[in-house]
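Section 5: illustrative case.
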């Protein structure tokens, strides 16, 4: 395939993947404020947090409080990450309508991130997904380290395809392929999507790039050409990866929307409002925005840098 999609759905991961890796630990009210600004900008899928161990990821503590502050908006969903049944219980109690389970394509990363092997994670997720589906929730699946692992180096695309297929088999409606440490390049990214789509239908695949080597937008463009139409991104380029020195945040949502606009691809997102949301959160964490679009528009330079 070499035709660009007419529309792309953005999955905003800043309030979760972004903030979980920032050193600032923000109160629930600020996190909820960010999410509401993102919804105002037209985002329809906004990850609101994670029901994981607060010892492992203290930034995501108080996710239930964040959820309690979010007004229901028609057509907007606030997925939360859930690693096990304990997390599911908390998500259900908080009224979550969508969860995401997260596996890895690398054994070492799986062990460090969720303290079990890839196979054990699938056994752990099975009852989580089953119970969530029974309760009427939607379940998304993540595969981390799809183009490289901080411990194992290059990852075989067949290993990625295996994990993606397993997650789909459990009942995930969409599988997000995560270049967690941002080492991918466009040719490899496109080849990966081609390979995984042999096991999981293309419309059920999303891509999730970090911008460590400055390749994220090029990677996304390559994957759009391959037929992908769901892209994860993080406002202001928030985030990083605690297990990979120098890994930068996810590609900035503002930069993705600017590129989509230039390509004539619909996203339903108001770029001005999105930039404003990114500037808001950058001020809250006291850092310059990592969105090139926001910087080009003169916003969100950390006060000490002015
Ligand atoms: P464990 O230590 O093996 O768990 O951690 P455990 O079952 O032995 O329990 C240990 C303690 O944690 C107990 O508390 C449990 O109650 C508690 P204690 O008795 O010691 O006081 N606990 C929990 N607390 C709150 N919520 C829970 C929960 N489960 C157990 N759900 C565990 C296993 C999975 C819990 C842990 O490893 C963990 O929380 N990991 C989360 C790591 C994480 O959130 N990583 C970031 C998300 S993945 C990612 O960012 C990549 C992605 O964005 C894709 C990409 O970027 O490419 C998705
Ligand atoms: Mg990520």
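Designed sequence:
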């Amino acid at each position: 395939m070499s035709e660009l999609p007419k529309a792309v759905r953005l999955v905003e991961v800043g309030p979760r993947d972004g903030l979980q890796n920032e050193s600032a630990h923000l109160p629930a009210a600020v996190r909820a404020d960010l999410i509401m600004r993102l919804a105002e900008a037209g985002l329809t899928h906004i990850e609101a947090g994670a029901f994981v161990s607060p010892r492992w990821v203290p930034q995501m503590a108080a996710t239930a409080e964040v959820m309690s502050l979010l007004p229901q908006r028609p057509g907007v969903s606030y997925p939360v990450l859930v690693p096990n049944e304990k997390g599911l219980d908390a998500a259900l109690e908080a009224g979550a309508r969508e969860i995401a389970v997260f596996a890895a394509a690398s054994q070492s990363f799986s062990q460090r991130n969720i303290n079990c092997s890839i196979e054990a994670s699938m056994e752990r997720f099975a009852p989580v997904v089953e119970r969530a589906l029974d309760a009427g929730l939607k379940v998304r699946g993540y595969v981390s380290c799809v183009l490289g692992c901080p411990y194992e180096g290059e990852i075989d695309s067949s290993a990625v395809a295996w994990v993606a297929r397993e997650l789909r088999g459990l009942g995930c409606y969409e599988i997000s392929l995560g270049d967690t440490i941002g080492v991918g390049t466009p040719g490899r990214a496109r080849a990966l999507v081609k390979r995984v789509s042999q096991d999981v239908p293309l419309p059920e695949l999303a891509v999730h790039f970090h911008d460590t080597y400055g390749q994220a937008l090029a990677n996304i463009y390559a994957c759009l050409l391959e037929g992908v139409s769901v892209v994860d991104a993080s406002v202001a380029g928030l985030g990083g990866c605690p297990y990979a020195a120098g890994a930068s945040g996810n590609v900035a949502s503002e930069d993705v929307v600017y590129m989509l606009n230039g390509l004539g691809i619909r996203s339903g997102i108001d770029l001005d409002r999105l930039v404003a949301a990114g500037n808001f959160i950058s001020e809250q964490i006291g850092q310059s925005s990592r969105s090139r679009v926001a910087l080009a528009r003169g916003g969100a330079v950390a006060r000490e840098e002015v």
